[in-house]
Design a protein that fits this description.
Elements (H helix, E strand, L loop, with lengths): L15 H8 L7 H13 L3 H21 L5 E5 L9 H8 L4 E6 L2 H5 L12 E6 L5 H8 L10 E5 L9 H11 L6 E7 L5 H14 L9 H5 L6 E2 L5 E2 L18 E7 L2
Parallel strand pairs: 1-2, 1-4, 2-3, 4-5
Antiparallel strand pairs: 5-8, 6-8, 7-8
Helix pairs in contact: 1-2, 2-8, 3-4, 6-7
Bound molecules: S-adenosylmethionine.
Length: 265
């Protein structure tokens, strides 16, 4: 009798990183991911644009930190599937000697991590298979690639909402406290301040499909991550409003993804 071995990547079930990849127009997704992605799009059509804006925020902030703040090292926790313009590509396009450590706990991301290791020869990248909730391991492993006595850009985009309770503040503090003065922190976090019930329904559907549920926080709760740090202008805002690349007529549309950059004094 023929026997089909189980699919270790469970492509028959929706997976959060592949749904996100689908919204970004990527190729690493399957029919189950697309069906769930479309269902969430139907309640919150803006969610695809939010994923795209999250990556655009990454490009703008990493460029800012490399060009204007002189950073040459980044610790990117909750990396996600490789896509266009990963952190090292953005940083190394400005400063090829930049070093980047990627961290994620998802075996699917680990399986694709090779695409994150194509560093420019002058720089270096590495991948750490670790959990955000274990900052000591992250810092210990990162020290193999980064010089933690020099400023680091700590990148926490779309990941803190995966920690449901207030332990998340201690985790961010544990990471930041080990970085020297002049280090910067970049965070994006989903809220329901702009789109209310539609955002809450989208999150409900996502959480039903995902083994990695999301907890929304208010902008005030997101602002607490930056306690003790110096916020860079314009502070914590809906991400399309953070130093938009091209001047627009009026303010860019608000969306329920808030972000900021801050410097450790
Ligand atoms: C929504 S994606 C964000 C990807 C990317 N940072 C971005 O903003 O485009 C969230 C990522 O965080 C990872 N993640 C979630 N919880 C985590 C944890 N406890 N430790 C490490 N990574 C985690 C997921 O595996 C996923 O790849």
């Amino acid at each position: 009798m023929s026997h089909t071995p189980p699919d270790p990547l469970r492509t028959d079930e929706p997976h959060s990183a592949r749904i996100y990849d689908y919204w970004l127009g990527g190729k690493d997704n399957y029919p189950a991911d697309r069906a769930m992605g479309d269902s969430i799009l139907s309640v919150l059509p803006m969610i695809g644009a939010m994923a795209v804006q999250n990556r655009a925020f990454l490009r703008r902030t990493i460029r800012f930190l490399t060009e204007e703040r002189g950073l040459r090292q980044f610790l990117d926790v909750g990396t996600g599937l490789p896509t266009a313009d990963n952190t090292h590509q953005v940083a190394q396009s400005v400063a090829p000697e930049s070093r980047v450590v990627y961290v994620d706990h998802d075996p699917l991301v680990l399986a694709h991590a090779r695409a994150l290791l194509d560093s420019a020869p002058a720089g270096r990248t590495s991948y750490v298979d670790a959990d955000l909730r274990d900052p000591e391991t992250i810092l210990r492993e990162a020290a193999g690639t980064l010089d933690l006595s020099e400023p680091v850009g700590l990148v926490l985009l779309g990941v803190l909402f995966h920690v449901p309770d207030d332990t998340v503040y201690g985790i961010v503090h544990a990471l930041v406290s080990e970085l020297p003065s002049g280090s910067h922190v970049v965070i994006t976090h989903s809220t329901d301040a702009a789109t209310g019930p539609a955002m809450r329904e989208a999150v409900r559907q996502w959480n039903e499909a995902s083994s990695n549920p999301i907890t929304l926080r208010t902008p005030d709760q997101v602002a607490r991550f930056f306690d003790g740090l110096d916020l860079v202008e314009p502070g914590l805002v809906s991400i399309p409003r953070w130093r938009p690349a091209t001047p627009e007529v009026g303010e860019p549309q608000a969306m329920d993804e808030f972000g900021a950059v801050a410097r450790k004094p």
